[in-house]
What does this fold into?
Amino acid sequence: MYRVLSVPLNHPPFPYEISAVAALSEKVDVSDFYFEIEDETLLCYLNRFDPVFHQTIIDEYAKTHLDEYYPSPSKNPFRRLLAEILAIGSYGISSGKRIYVDYNSERKVVDRKAKQKKRKEYFYAEGHDFSSTRNELEEKFVNQIICGDSLEVLRRLPDNCIDIIITSPPYNFGLAYDADTGDDAKYWEQYLSDLFAIFDECVRVLVWGGRFIVNIQPLFSEYIPIHHIISNHLMNRHLIWKGEILWEKNNYNCKYTAWGSWKSPASPYLKYTWEFLEIFCKGEIKKTGKRDMIDITDEEFKSWVVARWSIAPERNMKAYGHPAVFPEELVMRCLKLFSYQGDIVLDPFNGAGTTTYVADRLNRRYIGIDISEDYCKRARMRLSESQNGQSRLVT
It folds into this structure.
């Protein structure tokens, strides 16, 4: 089978064009591609094409035998067909050749389902005791900002009652950012132990098919890949890793090297302009919901499933009295892409309340938990202003 490309000659074929068809057919394997002339049209029957080897053959022959007959090389019909071949953006690759016919079928795995079963898809998620039965959340918790220790508050919630969790854990939670007085040397073992106790409760309260989205920036300067550590823990708790989104912040303000190693392999820094969103599911990948409760548009869906989101960081930190506020756009995309209207959204480290604010604007129910009374007041104030029409709409 071949894909057929054509270029009109607009004249009966000249002898040098007929000769070119014959000569080029001798230089390549016709099972890859070949040229023909029908009436006043030059045709290329295309199956496979080596963008280096085959292009060189056509270029050299055109330069030696054809270009002189045309007003410019770009008018050469063989070069025009070559340009069309190289412009094709969808193809498979095999042995260095681009495959233009049935390349999708070549990627299909024979007996895929049987092989998936044999190798145990989501093997790390086996052995869980999750229930698919949903439990209703008491009304006293719904649409509330709760000031308190997240671990204690979460223990008051029933199993399987939260649809989606969106959070970004602080690096020393339990200590207000603006009140830290040198206790930042909290041992990582203790930090992770405390964090994972809360995350384990989050896993418990998440419904079957629910999503757990963690925004995290690895501590590059301390060489602690915390996004991997957190992901590994959640996989050990039998959640399914759905994917990873790069939040491109376009922030290039970081140093290049350790002292004394400029332009040296000694210790160059890798510059990261993004953070990560690690996305997990409980029980299964698919989350069911009512179709009329979907609020994402066609264009939003097509754009956002490309897992690199260019979103500027929040610039108005002072207004919220918090040094690490989510941009509203980030939360909005997560909620529209991974939840339905009416779903219950949880942020166990709610801070100044961006998650709960956006959830409210998008017709989701919410629970925001934070240990800082000041942050909880700010979160409630944002909700109040929003509901009174004083805050800008999320679009």
